Each structure stands twice: as C-alpha cells, then as structure tokens.
Amino acid sequence: MAVLEALFLLGVLALSIAISLIVTVPLTGALVRLRANYNPRGLQLDPEGNVEPHTGPVVTSFFGMLKRVKRIEGWSGLYKGMMPTLLASAVLTAFAVIALNSTSASYHGRVNPPSAGPFGVLAYGLFSMLISLPATIITYRSITTPYKLPYFRPIYSLRILLTPTERRKPWILYLTPGLLLSQILHVVYTAFILRALRSFLVPLPSPGDASDVHFSSIKFGIYVGIEIWSTAVLCPLEVLATKLAIQRNHAAPEYNSVEQEVEEDAVMTEEYTEYSGVEEDVIGLRHEKDPYLGLVDCAKRVVDEEGWKALYRAWWLTMLGGVLSAFASAAPSLS
User: Fold this and answer.
1) Tell me, what CATH number does 123's domain have?
2) Rounded to 5 degrees, what are φ and ψ at 13?
3) CA 20 to 30 Å from 129, out of 48, 100, 240, 314?
4) Are the beta carbons of 33 and 69 closer than 8 angstroms?
5) Is residue 47 part of a domain?
C-alpha cells in the first residue's frame, strides 16, 4: 500500500510539474536569453586588436526579449529547454519524495529544500547541486542555441550542445570556470542562510499541532524584507551563472573554453531562421576567443564591458520569486 501511495504521489507531482512548466518554460527562456545577451557599452577589440563595433541585438527588457523570441523562433523557440528542465525537475522531485518524504514538487533553479531536518536539507542541497549544474548547462545552452533540437533524440541534441571533450569526459562540466562556485554560493545562501532566518522568523508548526507556534506579522514582515534585499546578492549570481553556463569546455591547448572544436562526426543541423525567414539572431554572445576565466573575472568583465546594471537584468523576477517563497513558507502558520 505504501508503494502504491508513493507512486500515486509521484504521478500527481509529475502532472503538476508538467502543467507548471508549460507556463514557466517560455518565461525562463526569455530570462536566460536576456541575461546571456552580450550588450557592450562601446567599441570592442577583436583578437587581433582591431576596433570592432558591436552588431548584436540590443534588448534590455524581459518582455521585449519574450516578444523577440516569439517573432524570430516562434512557439517552438519559446519552449526550448523543456526536456532538460522536465527531466531535472522530475529527478529532484523523486529524490525529495522517496528520500525525504516531501509532498511538493521540486524544480532546478532556486533551491528550496523540503522540511526534513538539517541533515535532510544538507542532503537535498548537495544532491540538487549535483543534478542542477549539468542540468543548468544543458538547459541554458539548449535555450540559447540557434539550432532546432528534437524533444526525443537526446544523443543528437547532446552532440550539438556539448563539445567532443565534454561528451568524452562529462565530469568536466563541473570544472566549467566559475560555475560551480556560483552554484555553491547560491545554494548556501538560499538553502541555508535564508532557511535559517525563515525558521527563526517564520517557524513552521509541528505536524498535527499548530498551537505551539505563534505567527508574528512583524517577524514575517522582516523576513519578507530580507527576501527582497536578498535580490542584491542572488540576482548577480544568477546572471553570472547564466553567462558561465553557456561557455563550452575544450581540452586541446589550441582551443580555449568556448571556441568550437573540430567535430569528428559533423551533425546536420537546422536553424530556426530557416523557417521564420528572419535573418538575425535572437541574442548576441561575447567573442568566443575571449572567455570568462572564473566567477570574479566574469563579474569584473561584465561591469567593465556592459555596466553594473547588467548584473541586475530582470532583478524584479528574482525579487518576486523571493517574495512568493516567503508567503509560501508562511502558509502553514497562517492556516
């Protein structure tokens, strides 16, 4: 009976994930493109030192990017990244339900562990980071690639998204410069620091007994304020992680971390522009021969080349997620 109940719960959660992703995937895709878009403030130098004017798209708003994706790539472009997002969310949910007895769905992105004690939170945080890092790389690259990726041909898609080195040595994804550090800092802040503050300011009632918890509107207001101010920390981490995740790893010394290696087995690919008739890219990317070397290097170059405001692209979405998380955490105390 317990097995049947677990399977039923997994089925319900899987359905809720699928419905949620239908709404969130296009929004996430626009957000990733906006933050990955390279929009320098002035003239740049090419690898030979010559002045090279920026010719990429200048898109500064979330809804402007959403409209641009729809215009150039159509509805199918809006749902790029659906399959890796679905798979990662399904794995995290299954782990939370089976190992931690959670009853809510989990998504890769902001880590919000189920209530399972300190060791459960630690286990979920580590497992989430282990799954989320390669999932983030594959998802963000599938969103930003100009090529059409079939939903049910993962090997074909991975040959497009990953370099030969990354396919031969998948663990090298964890060595992508600066990305692991950005993920660790994000998990530590959201899963441990914010969770500890939430437990102190908005304690959850014990199962079956809500009388031992007194809800304080003042403490809850303080926690909401902390979530809002946390945008100053989390949004830059998310922007930097986006830019670092789309950089590709190469082993050959004549290639740097983002320059394309010579493929031994070339893949015939189709671009979205072949169907839309629009001869322009959705976003522009930084020159492949001058990659970011780490988290700090990425932050410095973004500020120098694109301005500090680039670190806070779509900051209001990060803030909105924090506020909604605060109200969701307070729901058991209010009921």
Assistant:
1) 1.50.40
2) -65, -40
3) 314
4) yes
5) no
Beta bridge pairs of residue 147: 271
| Residue with tokens 């898609």, as numbered in its chain | 157
Query: What's this model's pTM, rounded to 2 decimal places?
Result: 0.82
Closest CA to 32 of 40, 20, 24: 24
Which residue range forms the structural domain that includes residue 174? 1-42+54-202+213-252+276-333
Higher pLDDT residue, 104 or 95?
95
Residue 207 inside a domain? The answer is no
* Amino acid residing at 160: I
Tokens of residue 287, six digits: 């020159």
Phi/psi region, residue 305 (left: phi>0; alpha: psi -120 to 50; beta: rest), is alpha
Q: Is residue 248 part of a domain?
A: yes
Query: 179-187 and 117-144 helices cross at what angle (nearest 10)?
Result: 140
SS3 of residue 214 by DSSP: coil
Q: Quick one: pLDDT at residue 44?
A: 59
Query: 80 with 149: CB under 8 angstroms?
Result: yes
152: left (phi over 0), alpha (psi -120 to 50) or beta: alpha
The count of domains in the chain is 1
